[in-house]
Amino acid sequence: MRLSRNRMWGTPPLVDFLERLAAQAPRVGWPGLLVGDMSQPRGGPMLTGHASHQLGLDADIWLTPMPDHRMSRREREETSATDVVRADRLDIDPRVWTPEHLKLIRLTAKQPEVTRLFVNPAIKKALCREAGGDRAWLSKVRPMYGHNYHYHIRLACPAGQDQCDDQAPPPGGDGCGEELAYWFSDAVLHPPKPTKPPKLKPPMTMAALPAACRAVLKAR
Ligand SMILES: [Zn+2]
């Protein structure tokens, strides 16, 4: 989706993964994937939007089911994404949330390559409520600001890539207790307005990246 952003680039393991997931999705009633941002060409930091999505191992999947046809470039620019969270941010919007949303997220979380999946806290709340007895996959599903139009997938370092360091695995358990409740605290839902403008982080430069990244940048 949004091809004009030019963020549809990923490592071969990520592209393979998404193709396999897309092929499996119809089995859980999800007609096909609308893939949002992956990485820029050659990866690396970007000026706006993401702290992650740099390694070619992250992808955003829209919470909108694929329509019944292959979308034109224009449709992929202009189609709006679906916000599945209620206006008060406390729960999903039952008018747009469906059992298939849970099934797609569960299918994704159960893939061995997936280490983490980010969703809005209201979505995590719905998953906790609707998951039933099979709950081990919920530990990978992490609450995060935003993520009400799409969910984010992070893959493990591909085998043999010894310069890739995996993040520590998420804490065990389904994460449906205190950890989730924190996201619905007043301080998180309604943070006080900052009195002075927040300090912006300086942009990341090539010099600050591992030397191996320069080789990627300069490769023809
Ligand atoms: Zn993302």
TrEMBL record:
Matching Pfam families, A to Z?
Peptidase_M74
Disulfide topology: 128-176, 157-164
Q: Does the keyword Protease apply?
A: yes
Keyword list, A-Z: Disulfide bond, Hydrolase, Metal-binding, Metalloprotease, Periplasm, Protease, Signal, Zinc
Q: Which GO terms describe its cellular component?
A: outer membrane-bounded periplasmic space
Q: Does the keyword Disulfide bond apply?
A: yes
Q: Which GO terms describe its molecular function?
A: metal ion binding; metallopeptidase activity; serine-type endopeptidase activity
In terms of domain of life, where is this protein from? Bacteria
Q: Name one GO biological process term.
A: proteolysis
The family database entries (NCBIfam families) matched by this protein are listed as: PRK09429.1 (NF006947)
Q: What is this protein called?
A: Penicillin-insensitive murein endopeptidase
